[in-house]
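Lab notebook page, bench 4
Experiment: in silico fold of construct C2
Operator: M.H.
Input chain length: 70 residues
Purpose: comparison with the prior construct
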Amino acid sequence: MNLVINGKKKELEEGTTVGRLLKIKKVRPEVVTVELNDQIIEREKYGDTILKEGDRLELVYYMGGGVGLV
């Protein structure tokens, strides 16, 4: 399936969850906020939130001294 992550087109396997995406990208869930189609996803729901064709995600990574995009 195709979706957009931080403005870039990406292809992922059907049924991928937000939690699985973070594992693929080697991002620790506790240091990132995920926005899916303009809605912030609660960290506790990362493993249950299944991504779909055309979804738009923003991964915002918190680091010492500021915020950055992953």
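Observations: Strands lie at 2-5, 8-11, 32-36, 39-41, 56-63, 66-69. The first strand starts at residue 2 and ends at 5.
Next step: discuss at group meeting.
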